[in-house]
Amino acid sequence: MEEKIVLTANENIRCDKYVAENLEGVSRSYIKNLFDDGKITVNGQVKSASYKLKAGDVIEFTLPEAEEIDAFPEDIPLDIVYEDEELLVINKERGMVVHPAPGNGSGTLVNAVLYHCKGNLSGINGKMRPGIVHRIDKDTTGLLVVAKTNDAHMFLSDQLGDRSLSREYYALVHGNIKEDEGRVDAPIARSENDRKKMTVTCKNSREAITDFFVEERFGLYTLVRCKLKTGRTHQIRVHMKHIGHPIAGDKTYGVKKEEFNLTGQLLHAGKIGFIHPKSKEKVQYEAALPEDFKKVLDILHNRRERED
Which region, left, alpha or beta, applies to residue 103 given φ > 0 means left and ψ of -120 to 50 means alpha? Predict the structure, then answer.
């Protein structure tokens, strides 16, 4: 059953810090999400995470019941970039869903990792996502980190929350971006017209920031490198569309007629960096572009040479 938490403050401290210090097995990023969603109240009123508590303040919220994992181990090949007793760094292929959902309990990254790790994965936050610290979209390729222990999961999740876990993506977008670099600072929320889509809006939205850097121009296309400052659902795809440069191959946010026969968006999580939970040293991993992405770039390079 769901667990109702009631805490009584006895000191002058930020509300989010006080909650984090008084709960075990829950990451700061998860607590931040509770605040962002208005699910934590102080004396019956919704407060911000930065609210300074006073002695006697009563904090209330409910932790969801831990769900049974429907996923089962499956012998699915994984491209493992790094592994130790604390975590794995995986280069996810296009078309693979990260975690199971109703109607999709098989063939996911979780199924594959359960088999590979023989079930030895973290299970914090009461979600059906064992070991999953963050995710990338089904048709996005590239790196993500998976935690094997609860301590590693919380340590990595806290870095995700305070934005010290760095992620860089490469994307081929439509159009010629004239600026060498830029920032898209535009809040994102689920679309009211189509619940499967996200959109830039100020209504019930959350902060979303993407920095981009032009790597190469091809006239009708631009290769960009994107750094995530936040991690909202479909963030880079929505932000690129928002500035008029949707990602090539994007079936949801892209153009209607694509030049290339693509099976998904040309968006690749190429770099990931974080403080290792055990060694406490900064580590960084890279993954080369997938073959279909490189093939399109080869076509564009050849076209540009002919035009020159």
Answer: left
For the chain, domains (ranges, CATH) are 3-63 (3.10.290.10), 66-162 (3.30.2350.10), 168-269+293-307 (3.30.2350.10)
Per the listing, tokens 């130790």 go with 84
Tokens linked to 222: 């631009």
What's the pTM value of the predicted model, to 2 decimals?
0.80
Q: Which of 57, 84, 137, 194 is catalytic?
A: 137
Decide if 139 is catalytic.
Answer: no
Count Cβ atoms below 10 Å from residue 11 Cβ, excluding itself. 9
- Give percent above pLDDT 90 in the chain: 55
> Between the CA of residue 101 and those of 71, 111, 155, 298, what are the distances in Å?
9, 12, 26, 37
Query: Is pLDDT of 2 > 50?
Result: no
- What is the rounded distance in angstroms from the CA atom of residue 274 to the CA atom of residue 159? 7
Helix (H) or strand (E) holding 261: none
How many beta carbons lie within 10 A of that of residue 193, not counting itself?
Answer: 7
